[in-house]
Amino acid sequence: MTEKPIPARMEHQPVGRRGLIRSGTVGGAAALLAATGGPARAAPATPPPVDTSFADFTLLKINSDDESLSKVQQKGLVVGTSNDWPYSFLDPKTGEWTGLDGDIIKYIVKMLKIPKINVQTVTFDGLIPGLLDGRFDIVGDSIHYTKNRSKVVSFCFPTYYYAEALIVPKGNPNKLHSLTDLKGHTVGSLLGTNYAEWIQAIPGVNFQGYKDWAQIIPELAIGRTDAALFDQPVAAAQMKQHPEWKIEIVEDYQPRTFKNPAGYSSYAFRQGDIQWVTAFSSAVQWMEYNDEMKKILSKWGLSGYNN
User: Tens of pLDDT along 184-229?
Assistant: First the structure.
């Protein structure tokens, strides 16, 4: 995935706290004005409105003039998704946007008094470029922190945890138990994911990338690949629906996605949208504290371990 560099925004070095102390109150203030090119902007008098029916939910007064949440509240939210069942997808029967992530974001949209949602679908590897180009206000699909992604986007407070699964033909004929075992084999995964990055970093692996997750496991089932690395919830659901595929999850595979904040699913935002991502993160934390996140996870077959 091509990543766009972030333009430098600061032309002056910030004045450190020790420098202000040495300069004294008046001199330090003058130094601060000189360094920033003018008087510091005051924080907004009041934060954007929220739905007061959610008890004790409030927003911080953010010292930022981007007004990104206020803009979303005025025009509605544009969500980018790869139409990714069971996370974020358009129901083929009703056309309704739903899924695990769809339900979480719709709940937060109500909390933040956002009037409407416009869903745009692209392939997974087009989500971050679309966000950066201004086509979406949020990557509304399960996405994880990586060092490369963090250079170009911001992530909200973590939502829920799941790990990747190594999927192989029934009986595991090639004896694949770890990522290093994949050398010399053809392995499939979704383009634009951290799984794809991990596979391609292994010397001697023939990586098969897919734009649509629905192709990955069927290709394994008919023998076009030797293994697949993908989300455990999706793999398990597909195996349950299609026992005729004769595949299995490698039970002793040790996931690389550790259960820490970086290993949790999240959503991506433009780095300049400080007000928007901060408010969204506050709503996520409120949901987790009040067990509303747990209710949505349970609806989609996930347990307390995933919270």
Answer: 999 999 998 889 999 999 999 999 999 888 899 999 999 999 999 9
The predicted-structure confidence for 231-253, as pLDDT tens digits, reads as follows: 888 887 788 788 899 999 999 99
Domains and CATH numbers, the chain: 68-161+260-306 (3.40.190.10), 164-249 (3.40.190.10)
Residue 64 CA to residue 69 CA, distance in Å, equals: 11
Torsion (CA) 99, 161, 294, 284 in degrees, nearest 10 = -80
What is the residue whose two structure tokens read 């999706």? 234
- CA nearest neighbour of 192 among 142, 117, 244: 142
Question: To the nearest whole number, what is the mean pLDDT of the chain?
Answer: 85
Q: Running DSSP on this structure, what letter comes out for residue 133?
A: T
Say how far apart CA 133 and CA 3 lie, in whole Å. 11
CA separation for the pair 43, 38 (Å, rounded): 15
**pTM, whole model, 2 decimals?**
0.69
Whether the CB-CB separation of 181 and 200 falls below 8 Å is answered with: no
The whole-angstrom separation of Cα 92 and Cα 95 is 6
